[in-house]
Amino acid sequence: MITAINRDIMPENWYNVVPDLPEPLAPPRDSKQDVSSINLLNKILPREVLKQEFTFRRYEKIPDEVMEQYEQIGRPTPLIRAKNLEKYLDYHGKIFYKYEGATATGSHKINTAIPQAYYAMKEGVKGVTTETGAGQWGSATALAASLYGLPAQIFMVRISFEQKPLRKTVMNLYNGNVVASPSTLTEYGRKMLKEHPDTPGTLGIGISEAVEYALDHDYRYMVASVMNVALTHQSVIGQETKKQLELIGEHADVLIGCVGGGSNFGGFTFPFIPDGDETEIIATTADEVPKFSKGDYKYDLVDSAGVLPQMRMYSLGADFVPPTIYAGGLRYHGASPSLSLLINKGRIKSDEVTESQVKEALRIFANTQGIIAAPESGHAIATAINYVKAHKNENKTIVVNVSGHGMLDLSIFGEKK
Amino acid sequence: MKNLIPYFTLGYPDNTRLCRFLDIIPVEKINYIEFGFPSIDPRYDGPVIRKTHSVGNINFSGEVYSKYFDYFSRNHVKMYSLSYYSDIKDRFDEFIGYLQMNKFSGIIIPDLIIDYFNDSRKVIEKLNDMGFEYIPFFSPATPDSIIKSIASITNSWIYYGLQPSTGIEIPYELDYTTERINTLLPGREITYGFGIKTDDDIKNLMKNGGSGVAIGTYLVKMIDAGDEKGFIDYIEKMRGVLDE
Ligand SMILES: Cc1ncc(COP(=O)(O)O)c(C=O)c1O
Questions:
Q1: Higher pLDDT residue, A14 or A5?
Q2: Which atom from ligand 1 is nearest to the alpha carbon of A137?
Q3: Which residues form the domain of B177?
Q4: What pLDDT, on a 0 to 100 scale, did the predictor assign at position A416?
Q5: Can you give the CATH number for the domain in which B44 is found?
Q6: Ligand 1 atom with the shortest distance to the CA of A406
Q7: Is some CB atom of chain A closer than 8 A to the CB atom of B151?
């Protein structure tokens, strides 16, 4: 582990990539003809979050109160050289991993949950609400809301709700209210239950329910991913990584991360974008949700109900119901517009890995580094292992973002005799 | 004189009612005017202006307006067209020829660098060759390098959209936004648009070095109500604020 004074590693500002993109980011578009879904955001998001989303400040000062909480939940997170993995793979280059699983809630999600809840609290909001897939975002939201004394209503994708009861316990411990989505709490949820009584749920449905709940209860919606502001907050990951590498005189040749909506990936890699094109950047998704290879780059709905504005992104369609895969956090149909643009322009490459590759990668990582990574993060590890195998003699320095731990996702391994 | 740019979608609410407003514009109070040629897909406009396009599409008749184009040009009001590239790309030369024949000075194309980025340089250079002003349209989402490169191949004023689309009211940081564009393009005329309505909006923009404002959505309400007097008062008042 790299040790140094925390504040020397933690950045003072969040970094927003938009001013440094190679082409203009397409603006959000109204989803309905005669009303403005963009204007409606005024009632959905905390004002400061909205302001950050649309001001596109390259460097946004992190409030002192947020810095303090970042330290409380374990920032900076460690950057660790995976020497055992290098040895196992017989690799003569270097592999580092940034370990976001070391935060209090076990993933990177807390990095944006804290500022969003903080702004909501400062603005005197009544409560916050959101969706969650695997439960990592719901846990982060529940904790952040609880730290600021706000009630949190969480809509958990039904299949995860059923498969991961311990996640619900975690959210309840952090004072969050959790229901399976689709739920009977919202009109959209009731409609979905009526039309598709057996639906496993999707993140798109969960988002729709949370947004409706926010509008009806004068709550504010917490943005997990996809919207630029979440990626900006997550930039603490990449900025810390840069600093940690710098302190030991290392330079990343390759960055690898996994993509659900793009928040851990964007947060991890975007701070490297202004440095030029030398660093190879690879985004990994599940081959069951092949948004970059089979999705279209187009305006599409963010939530299935179409209350939020549309965004131009790689998408499999908002009504895409993915298989009930082992990595709930990667089931989302689209990906953040800024990330989509960088992929479309070829600056960022993409990769897809299969369930068996991911499980194997998680096993290898557990047996070499001792870390049981989240299934989502397992995708990044699998891509890294494949990369090493394909570039054996290049001796590069590879840095992987391990976005979370998988201690509550152990069921994916089933029983072993 | 700071730029006060009223915006009208041609054909909205119908030709006769729009002409009544064009008849009464105090031409000495404005120096530029922006005409929206109805688009079949005004994708970067908010709901109010979108509606004017869908109505304008039904009503628009070039003949009705040619005498107004002549009138404004004789009164030294520079005319700019707001046109979506998606609508004009297949008859580009013909359309620019039409605008030139009607003494327009230039064109604003909101979707050019967003949806047709790869064609944009060619289009701008072509307009330059035709002696027709291309007005760069930028927003806070436009990357710095693009702002610089597009500005460097044009000489005109810049149209800066403060909101993600017309008529929207999303909070943003005004001082940061104006400072960023001023730093990127020192000395260049920056005219702001999108969501501007009150004198305070205008005062703050001028204080931060703005060279003018465009007003669209806010005028639609007056046009809808046929409030001719309100419209004249508003234009005069805004001119006063700009000249302060
Ligand atoms: C551990 C972990 N990693 C990655 C993701 C994917 O989300 P994003 O792409 O926004 O980082 C999730 C989402 O739930 C997650 O829980």
A1: A14
A2: 14
A3: 3-243
A4: 53
A5: 3.20.20.70
A6: 1
A7: no
The reply to whether B163 touches chain A by the CB within 8 Å rule is: yes
Tally the domains of chain B: 1
pLDDT digits (tens, 9 = 90+) for B121-177: 999 999 999 999 999 999 999 999 999 999 999 999 999 999 989 988 999 899 999
Residues of A in contact with B144 (CB under 8 A): 19-20
Residue with tokens 């840069």: A242
Average pLDDT, chain A: 95
Has residue A3 got a pLDDT over 60? no
Q: Say yes or no for a CB contact (<8 Å) between B143 and A18.
A: yes
> Any chain B CB within 8 A of the CB of A231?
no
* Site of tokens 């027709």: B132
Token pair of B132 as six digits: 């027709």
Chain-chain contact of B143 with A33 (C-beta, under 8 angstroms): no
ipTM over 0.90: yes
In angstroms, the CA A189 to CA A105 distance is 28
* Nearest chain B Cα distance for residue A18, angstroms: 6
Whole-number Å distance, alpha carbon A320 to ligand 1 midpoint, is 18
Of the listed ranges A149-158, A312-321, B7-16, B70-79, the least confidently predicted one is A312-321
Predicted pLDDT at A1: 46
Residues A49-103 have pLDDT tens digits of: 999 999 999 999 999 999 999 999 999 999 999 999 999 999 999 999 999 999 9
Contacts of A312 (CB under 8 A, 6+ apart): A26, A29, A297, A298, A299, A300, A337, A340, A341
- HEC-encoded secondary structure of chain B: CCEEEEEEECCCCCHHHHHHHHHHCCHHHCCEEEEECCCCCCCCCCHHHHHHHHHHHHHCCHHHHHHHHHHHHHCCCEEEEECCHHHHHHHHHHHHHHHHHCCCCEEECCCHHHHCHHHHHHHHHHHHHCCCEEECEECCCCCHHHHHHHHHCCCCCEEEECCCCCCCCCCCCHHHHHHHHHHHCCCCCEEEECCCCCHHHHHHHHHCCCCEEEECHHHHHHHHHCCHHHHHHHHHHHHHHHHC
User: Which residue is closest to A30 within chain B, CA to CA?
Assistant: B46
Q: Residue A417's pLDDT is what?
A: 45
The Cα B86–Cα B83 span in angstroms is 9
Q: Between chain A and chain B, how many beta carbons pairs sit less than 8 Å apart?
A: 87
